[in-house]
C-alpha cells in the first residue's frame, strides 16, 4: 500500500520498534505493545506504561512457539483474558532465597495442590480394587476402556469412596447399579455410572448417616490401603488439608472477612463453637479448592461450578454453611439479651459494604439518606421501649427495661410503618416514592399482604 503524500505529511510520523528492555525509562506519545503467552508481567508493565497519551496492547491469541514446523489452523486459540491472566502469573524477576522458600512452603501447603495429590494417590492405591470390581460388573472390553479413560472416572471413584464414608457397601451395590439399565447408548459410561451412584447414595442417605469420613468436610477418605508407605503418604496429606482448612477459617474469622461474617460468629459454648468452626473450615476449603478469591458470598458464584467434582463439593460446602448458620442461630442469646437495634443496623450496613457505594449515584445517596433516618427511628424506639414494656406477670401493666420478645418487634414494625406513612411530626415522606429505599406499605384490600406501594394512593 502506498498512502498519498499529503496524508503522510499530515498524519504520519517516524516511529521505531524496540524491546521493552530498551524502552525502560523512556516516554513516548503513544505506545503499541505486542503481548504473547511468553511475555512476563514485568515486561508487560513496562510496555503498557510508556505512552503519554495512550497505550495499546495487541494480544496474540494464536501463539505458536514453532511456526516453521506447525500446521496452519491446528493451533488452539486462547481468549485475550486467558493470555493476559497467564502473563500476570508469569514472573520473570529473580526471587530471593527467602521468597523462594516462602513460595515453596505455600505451594506445599496449598489446599488445591494437596487435594490433587491425595486424590491421585488414592486412585492409584485403590486402582486394582476398583478395576477388579469393574471387571465383574458385566461391562464389555470397550466399555471398560471408555470408563477408565473418561474424565468422569476420577469423580466416579470419589463417589464410591463417599458411599463407603457413609457406611454403605459400595462393593455389593455397584454391580447392581451397572447392570440395572443398559449402557449401550451412553456417550460417557463413567458419567452415567457416577450419576447412578450419586442417586443411590442420596436415596440411602435418609436411612444412613451423612458422610462423616471426609477430609475438611469435602474429600472422601480412601480406605483399605494395604501399602504402608502409601497409607502414610495419604495420612500426611490428610492432616495437612485439615490443618490448612482450619488455618484459613481462623484467619477469615479473625480478620472479619465478609464471607465468614455471613456465617455468623463463633458461639460461646465450646462444643457449639467447635461445630461452627468445623463448618466454616469446610467452606474455607471449598473456596480455596475452587479459587473463589475475594467474592463476598460464602460459596462464590454458582456459574463457576462446571465439573462433576466441583458440583459435589459445592453441595457439601452449602450443607456446611447451613450447619454454621444453624449452630450460630441456636446459640444466639434471645429474650435475655439487651436489645441493640442501632448496633445491629450498623452490623448489617457493614455486611452491605456501604463504604463502597458510589456517592455519585443519586439512588445510592437516596438509600443512604433513608438508612440514616432509619437509624434515628431505631434509636428513638429503643430509648422509649427500654423505659416501658408490658409486665408479663400483670396483664395491662408495664415495667421498664429492654425486651426482645414478639411484642417488642411487632410494635417496632408498626412504628416503622407509621414513620414511613408520615404519621410522625418531622417526616413527610419522599417526593419520589420510586426512589425511596423504604417505600410505603399498601393499604386497603392489599394491606398486610407483604407488598409495598411505589406511589401515593
The SS-based structural class is: mainly alpha
Mean pLDDT: 76
Structural Rg: 31 Å
The biggest beta sheet reads:
2 strands, parallel
Please report the distance between the alpha carbons of the first and last residues.
71 Å
Query: How many strand elements?
Result: 8
Uncertain segments are 427-457
Q: Label the overall shape.
A: flat
Explain how this protein is built.
- This protein has 457 residues and is mainly alpha-helical.
- It has helices at 5-11, 20-23, 41-47, 80-89, 97-109, 111-125, 127-135, 141-149, 153-165, 170-179, 189-205, 228-254, 258-261, 270-289, 308-331, 341-351, 362-385, 406-420, and strands at residues 28-35, 51-59, 214-215, 219-220, 389-390, 398-399, 440-441, 452-453.
- α9 (153-165) packs parallel to α11 (189-205) and α14 runs antiparallel to α15.
- The radius of gyration is 31 Å and the shape is flat.
- It starts with a helix and ends with a strand.
- Mean pLDDT is 76; it is low at 427-457.
Compose a concise summary of this entry.
52% of the residues lie in helices and 6% in strands. It has 18 helices and eight strands.
Key words describing this protein structure:
457 residues, mainly alpha, two-stranded parallel ribbon, two-stranded antiparallel ribbon, 8 strands, 6% strand, disordered C terminus
Topology, element by element:
Elements: H1 5-11, H2 20-23, E1 28-35, H3 41-47, E2 51-59, H4 80-89, H5 97-109, H6 111-125, H7 127-135, H8 141-149, H9 153-165, H10 170-179, H11 189-205, E3 214-215, E4 219-220, H12 228-254, H13 258-261, H14 270-289, H15 308-331, H16 341-351, H17 362-385, E5 389-390, E6 398-399, H18 406-420, E7 440-441, E8 452-453
Helix pairs in contact: 6-12, 9-11, 12-14, 14-15, 17-18
Amino acid at each position: 500500500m502506498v498512502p498519498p503524500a499529503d496524508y503522510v505529511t499530515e498524519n504520519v510520523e517516524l516511529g521505531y520498534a524496540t524491546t521493552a528492555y530498551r524502552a525502560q525509562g523512556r516516554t513516548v506519545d503513544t505506545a503499541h505493545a505486542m503481548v504473547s503467552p511468553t511475555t512476563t508481567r514485568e515486561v508487560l508493565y513496562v510496555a503498557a506504561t510508556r505512552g503519554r497519551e495512550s497505550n495499546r496492547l495487541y494480544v496474540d491469541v494464536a501463539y505458536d512457539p514453532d511456526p516453521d514446523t506447525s500446521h496452519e489452523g491446528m493451533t488452539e486459540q486462547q481468549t485475550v483474558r486467558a493470555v493476559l491472566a497467564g502473563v500476570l502469573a508469569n514472573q520473570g524477576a529473580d526471587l530471593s532465597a527467602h521468597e523462594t522458600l516462602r513460595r515453596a512452603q505455600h505451594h506445599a501447603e496449598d489446599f488445591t495442590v494437596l487435594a490433587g495429590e491425595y486424590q491421585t494417590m488414592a486412585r492409584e492405591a485403590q486402582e486394582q480394587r476398583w478395576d477388579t470390581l469393574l471387571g465383574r460388573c458385566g461391562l464389555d472390553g470397550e466399555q471398560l476402556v471408555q470408563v477408565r479413560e473418561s474424565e468422569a472416572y476420577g469423580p466416579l471413584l470419589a463417589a464410591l469412596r463417599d458411599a463407603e464414608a457413609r457406611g454403605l457397601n459400595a462393593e455389593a451395590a455397584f454391580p447392581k447399579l451397572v447392570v440395572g439399565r443398559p449402557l449401550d447408548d451412553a456417550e460417557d459410561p463413567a458419567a452415567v455410572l457416577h450419576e447412578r451412584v450419586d442417586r443411590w447414595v442420596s436415596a440411602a442417605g435418609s436411612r444412613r448417616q451423612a458422610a462423616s469420613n471426609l477430609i475438611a468436610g469435602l474429600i472422601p477418605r480412601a480406605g483399605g490401603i494395604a501399602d504402608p508407605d502409601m497409607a502414610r503418604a495419604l495420612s500426611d496429606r490428610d492432616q495437612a488439608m485439615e490443618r490448612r482448612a482450619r488455618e484459613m477459617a481462623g484467619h477469615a474469622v479473625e480478620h472479619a472477612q465478609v464471607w465468614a461474617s455471613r456465617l455468623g460468629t463463633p458461639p460461646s459454648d465450646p462444643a457449639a463453637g467447635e461445630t461452627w468452626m468445623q463448618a466454616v473450615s469446610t467452606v474455607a476449603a471449598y473456596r480455596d479448592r475452587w479459587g473463589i478469591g475475594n467474592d463476598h458470598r460464602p460459596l462464590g458464584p454458582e456459574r463457576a461450578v462446571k465439573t462433576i467434582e466441583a458440583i459435589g463439593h459445592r453441595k457439601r460446602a452449602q450443607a456446611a454453611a447451613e450447619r454454621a448458620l444453624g449452630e450460630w442461630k441456636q446459640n444466639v442469646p434471645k429474650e435475655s439479651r439487651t436489645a441493640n437495634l442501632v448496633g445491629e443496623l450498623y452490623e448489617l450496613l457493614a455486611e452491605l459494604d456501604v463504604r463502597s457505594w458510589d456517592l455519585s449515584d443519586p439512588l445510592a445517596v437516596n438509600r443512604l439518606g433513608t438508612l440514616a433516618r432509619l437509624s434515628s427511628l431505631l434509636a428513638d424506639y429503643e430509648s422509649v421501649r427500654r423505659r416501658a414494656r408490658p409486665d408479663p406477670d400483670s396483664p395491662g401493666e408495664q415495667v421498664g427495661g429492654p425486651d426482645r420478645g414478639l411484642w417488642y418487634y411487632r410494635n417496632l414494625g408498626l412504628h416503622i410503618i407509621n414513620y414511613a406513612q408520615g404519621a410522625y411530626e418531622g417526616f413527610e415522606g419522599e417526593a419520589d416514592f420510586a426512589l425511596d429505599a423504604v417505600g410505603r406499605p399498601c393499604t386497603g384490600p392489599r394491606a398486610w399482604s407483604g407488598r409495598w406501594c411505589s406511589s401515593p394512593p
